[in-house]
Amino acid sequence: MIQTIRGFRDILPEDIALWQKIEKTASELFDNFGFREIRLPILEKTELFARSIGETTDIVEKEMYTFPDRKGDKLTLRPEATASVVRSYIQHKMYAADPVRKFYTIGPMFRRERPQKGRYRQFYQIDAEVFGVSSPYIDAELILILNELFKRLGLSGLKAHINSLGCPECRPVFQKALKDFLTLNYDRLCPDCKRRMEKNPLRTLDCKSLSCRKALENAPSTLGHLCNECSEHFEIVKKMLVKQNVDFIVDKTLVRGLDYYSRTAFEILTTSLGAQSAVAGGGRYDSLVKELGGKDIPAIGFAIGFDRLTEIMAQVKKSDEKPGLDIFIIAIGKQAMEPGYLWMSELNLAGIKSEMDFSGRSLKSLMKRADKLNAGHVLIAGDREINENALIFRNMNTRKQNIIPMDNIIKDIKKLLKKE
Ligand code: HAM
């Protein structure tokens, strides 16, 4: 049997309602805040990701699905959306009419990581990006939106971790301090970090190896080296979050796994998937538009791990599940089969989701099936009910039963559903 590739999976019909609910809640919220949807290709030139995410990151060094196409061009299945949104913003000169733009996009991303709960090789992100605003109020707004989305989805206990990574003004001073620290602790670093420390010392702070994490416990932090402007910026972000009751902590160890960030960086962390993991992450990337060939336009954004979000929600929410269908028609005996089929069709055409079983099984086993399908109601038509022109319409939640005649059955059902 041919099966899915490791780390790739099907999202099955029984899980789709949750995915759609999240998508709907997110797009309504984005709409409220003036974001517009954008849809982008999943295949891009490798160079786009190498130049934006950074040559020395885990994503680019180890995790991208890269291959030559038939003409030899190097292509990559997108590992994230930000680089593509920036490419599109520049390619279509979207800044010309108005540099201030807000986008969101939802779709699959690909990273060849070690699969585990909440970590897949094809996973989905809900991504939001804002261009053209350097003010810290937008940083706060994005974290507020994340907070609000989780609230609307009924999740609590998620915490925003925030940090400031400085800017091209203050970053070199910090990098020098970090390099000095790394040189002193060189023997304790993993081979990757020994190699990366010259080119990109910040990456060592994001290393997952235990020996590095121990060695870097007392490493200098970006927060200790911010210039005045970066400090002021960060202060306003924090002040706004306090004013808007967003639960957050300042986490000086948060550096993010991608190179393009400057100033505010954030992650929303949860422990409900086992070890602590991020359900969303983002930050400011003020230099990226220019670095990719555009104008000097600031930007900031975030991405939510859609798969992780569904897994957290599936744990929390079981109780307020919507019925799988409105009516399950239980037709017992030959007489009931034909009218049962016609009622089902009419109900479905009228927008009342109905199903029926044609196997002629017993009442008991059909009631079990109605339960399994999570039907809101059953309509029972056996020989006796048909002969007496009195069908049973039963609410599966309240167990209330109504007797209805066959003549105006669709109208009667509509009326009863309306009354509930
Ligand atoms: P990221 O932190 O690499 O940021 O990914 C964002 C979120 O995607 C993570 O917090 C996690 O929930 C989810 N995620 C990442 N990898 C996987 C995986 N293998 N399986 C399941 N979920 C995963 C970015 O991608 C940036 N582009 C975010 C951003 C937007 N920054 C600015 N704008």
Descriptive keywords:
BirA Bifunctional Protein, domain 2, alpha+beta, single chain, binds histidyl-adenosine monophosphate, 5-stranded mixed sheet, 2 domains, 420 residues, 8-stranded mixed sheet, Rossmann fold
Specify the CATH homologous superfamily of the largest domain: Bira Bifunctional Protein, Domain 2
Helical fraction equals 25-40%
**What is the overall silhouette?**
elongated
* Residue runs with pLDDT of under 50 for 5 or more positions: none
Specify the CATH class of the largest domain: Alpha Beta
Q: Biggest sheet, strands in spatial order?
A: 1-5-6-11-10-9-7-8
Could you tell me the mean pLDDT? 94
- Span from first to last CA? 48 Å
Q: How is the main sheet built? A: 8 strands, mixed
At the fold tier of CATH, the topology name of the largest domain is BirA Bifunctional Protein, domain 2
Please tell me the CATH architecture of the largest domain by its name.
2-Layer Sandwich
Number of helices: 15
Number of strands: 16
How many domains in all? Answer: 2
- Rg, nearest Å: 28 Å
Strand content: 15-25%
Bound molecules: histidyl-adenosine monophosphate
Backbone structural class: alpha+beta
